[in-house]
């Protein structure tokens, strides 16, 4: 199981922010609430505890997508949306 090297934070009404460790320095990331609802079974109007639970349950996939996106387009900030998790 992947471990979290940071403490994710719920950004009210927006998503969950987290830091992705990278060789060139940490990348500040956010996965949107909509992405958690569409791809990680988060129910509408969930409280922060449920939002963080959905994030932690999907962290392996969330981190993998974030890592691929940073490799393709290096950045210091990254936002993950439903489109990032769509099967291609």
Fold and architecture overview:
Pfam families: DUF1488. It comes from Paraburkholderia hospita. This is DUF1488 domain-containing protein. With 88 residues, this protein is of the alpha+beta class. It has a single domain, classed as Double Stranded RNA Binding Domain (2-Layer Sandwich), CATH 3.30.160. It is built from four helices and four strands. Strands 1-2-3-4 form a four-stranded mixed β-sheet. The longest helix is centred in the C-terminal third of the chain and has 14 residues, at 59-72.
Radius of gyration, Cα only, in angstroms?
12 Å
What is the 3D shape?
Answer: globular
Overall mean pLDDT stands at 91
Percent strand equals 15-25%
N- to C-terminal separation? 25 Å
Q: Which structural class do the helices and strands define?
A: alpha+beta
* Helical fraction: 25-40%
**Order of strands across the biggest sheet?**
1-2-3-4
Major beta-sheet overview: 4 strands, mixed
CATH architecture: 2-Layer Sandwich
Q: Remind me, CATH topology?
A: Double Stranded RNA Binding Domain
Order of helices and strands: EEEHHHEH
In the CATH hierarchy, what is the class?
Alpha Beta
Q: Spans with pLDDT under 50 lasting ≥5 residues? A: none
Total separate domains: 1
Number of strands: 4
Number of helices: 4
């Amino acid at each position: 199981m992947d471990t979290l090297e940071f403490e994710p934070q719920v950004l009210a009404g927006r998503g969950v922010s987290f830091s992705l460790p990278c060789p060139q320095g940490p990348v500040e990331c956010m996965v949107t609430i909509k992405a958690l609802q569409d791809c990680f079974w988060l129910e509408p109007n969930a409280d922060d505890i449920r939002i963080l639970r959905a994030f932690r349950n999907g962290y392996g996939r969330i981190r993998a997508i974030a890592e691929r996106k940073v490799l393709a387009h290096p950045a210091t900030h990254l936002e993950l949306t439903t489109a990032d998790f769509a099967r291609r």
